[in-house]
């Protein structure tokens, strides 16, 4: 049987999601035996875009006309387009100021006089432009989720990822609840789990890198944090770090 | 016979031996279990279900469309709706599968002996009712009048149509087919009524005092039909509802399929209306 | 064979070391970050005898959060090879023992769950009396017969009572450390302080339902930490080399996915899920209908970030005297 072909690429992003593939050291050989890596600029000397991929794992937010045409290319060329990581899924880090600061001001701040020549628009997730077949969340994604996705693709299906919040895994690991016991600004209740509560397990509150959980009670989390003495500004700043498009009135 | 506990938890190996497309998203799959499973499957009642595994995808509850054949082969009528059924729909003969069962309650076919039976099926709900229907027709002389009313959304989505028409001709089955929507000529070509099942039932005269009525269909159908049936005088104990919930384990443990304080997998999936009428969320 | 004896405080360390002959010794400890949890008593310094409640109840020994239930290889599903080791769990409070007895009823009833049964057969339970705090609401903290051995604290030691033959063997092994004592009066299982509720109450129009539905953040802590919650989800995944595994993982009735089916949801709103929770906790499902599974450990109340306490739904509309079930 022909090996499924794989594209791994990025739009506006830090390449950390693509790096997840390299972090699968123990499984890399298996992956290369079972997939044809057709396009992977980060890992190839002469990457050459193809007309067809079975699976495209694309990271990053869409923030330039170039990003957009690349996204359309991957959508059109791929049987399965996977939004790879939080930026692709929710806009991520690059989009955190979308609501608070106009784009030109941000560009001026970073690029100074060169700003007016840049073609850039507020970073947005893939779903604003194309449909995706599956997503792996996380900043960066969990290695296990990537392997589960590749395994599922080989089996002819897509993986079933859990849809519970960080708190479930956090409690089950018998971590200290940083929100209740240490009064820290922890986003665990409204953030998609699957990370095995990595951060709270080491005493760092959940910063929300995996994006909103299904049916997040955002309004209640906000209320909870406000009553615990955090300012609305501080809460919104923290929540926007990885996902800017929260509906702060949403309860279900 | 109570099967050994491990067999209720570990699926038997099985193989897909054939498939027949019934509509664009629904097919009838013939599944042959390994010989070791035959003893368990021999006690199958119409309305019971199996947990079908498609390796790599997972497990789904399916109520077979007929009792197992003598060689243990099962006919499973499956619509492509999720990942497991999607994987099954990609499968060709020879594909390894696995199954556990039978689970749950079936239709009380022994108690129904001597009585007329009215079967009301909506959409994919025909699958478990076909199993009941074929059983009743195989023991035709033990039952009174047998009627099937079957509603589908449109003519192209009507499953087993030719087969049902054949059964009506050969076994004296009273068959009423209806579709929700159809272009006029299309409806004519299919020789069926246009309208909803509850409307069809409204004008139907039957021996409500003696009949057993079996219902299976999409959730809103039950609410509409139940009122009609009790209004016509069918005893709630004789209204048999085959309900669908999300069964994950099939044996009363995972608790996803609760209906009130009952579990669909072990107390059902066939319930008498009298058992669930007081549960607000049941229908 | 003695079935009860007196253990002086000074002999407790040696007594615990004696128990190690019966399996790996686990007991209540305090983690570095200050969480109370059952863990291996590698050193007796770790033992936290005065604990109130562990974050995760002993169910984790029988029914771990994430468990490979079946493996798929060579065209067949099978149980993974058993990994269960003989364990002595020391210092379990009466409420948690009652909860384990409930889980036994769930998982050891026909058809017995083979994975649970294997672990259960390897788990010896040593109970201990406790002092309730503000979160507790059990009816009888003093003792329990749902174990192999039970220690009741007395002024300078413990009254030790064997409740099974394994418990009697433990007493025998530790005979040198014990002095004879009159047996404790026979114990009846501690009734739950919340009697089984009429399912109709789960559908009441009490505005509290909406209030809870509005404030529940859906974090799942209540059921993760509940000693009798056992809903589980099942997920299958395939490895790169073709074999696969089917996982069981703790689920929570308040998650949207709990009542979902392809194309719909039978419990679409949070209020529907809270009602489900009430039904499961206080009314019981199917063979356990008419049985409350709340043991009064107080965990759900302690861990809920928004102070939801389903018991308020019972308290507010108390049944008429004598009318309760």
From TrEMBL, chain A:
GO cellular component entries: periplasmic space
InterPro entries in alphabetical order: Hydrogenase_assoc-protein, NADH_UbQ_OxRdtase-like_20kDa, NiFe_Hase_small_N_sf
Residue span, NADH:ubiquinone oxidoreductase-like 20kDa subunit domain: 14-151
GO molecular function, one term: oxidoreductase activity
Keyword tRNA-binding annotated: no
Subcellular location per the Swiss-Prot or TrEMBL entry: Periplasm
Domain of life of the source: Bacteria
UniProt keyword terms in alphabetical order: Oxidoreductase, Periplasm
The protein's name: Cytosolic NiFe-hydrogenase subunit delta
Protein's organism: Geomonas silvestris
Lineage: Bacteria, Pseudomonadati, Thermodesulfobacteriota, Desulfuromonadia, Geobacterales
UniProtKB/TrEMBL annotation, chain B:
Binding positions for [2Fe-2S] cluster per the UniProt entry: 249, 254, 257, 265
Co-factor binding details: Binds 1 [2Fe-2S] cluster per subunit.
UniProt keyword S-adenosyl-L-methionine, yes or no: no
Top-level taxon of the source organism: Bacteria
Name of one Pfam family that matches: FAD_binding_6
Cofactor(s) of this protein: [2Fe-2S] cluster
Keyword set, alphabetical order: 2Fe-2S, Electron transport, FAD, Flavoprotein, Iron, Iron-sulfur, Metal-binding, Transport
GO annotation, biological process: pyrimidine nucleotide biosynthetic process
PROSITE patterns, per database record: FAD_FR
GO molecular function, one term: flavin adenine dinucleotide binding
Domain FAD-binding FR-type as annotated: residue spans: 9-109
InterPro entries the UniProt entry points to: Cbr1-like_FAD-bd_dom, Cyt_c3_hydrogenase_gsu, Dihydroorotate_DH_ele_sf, Dihydroorotate_DH_Fe-S-bd, FAD-bd_FR_type, Flavoprot_Pyr_Nucl_cyt_Rdtase, FNR_nucleotide-bd, OxRdtase_FAD/NAD-bd
Protein name: Oxidoreductase
Organism the protein comes from: Geomonas silvestris
Lineage: Bacteria, Pseudomonadati, Thermodesulfobacteriota, Desulfuromonadia, Geobacterales
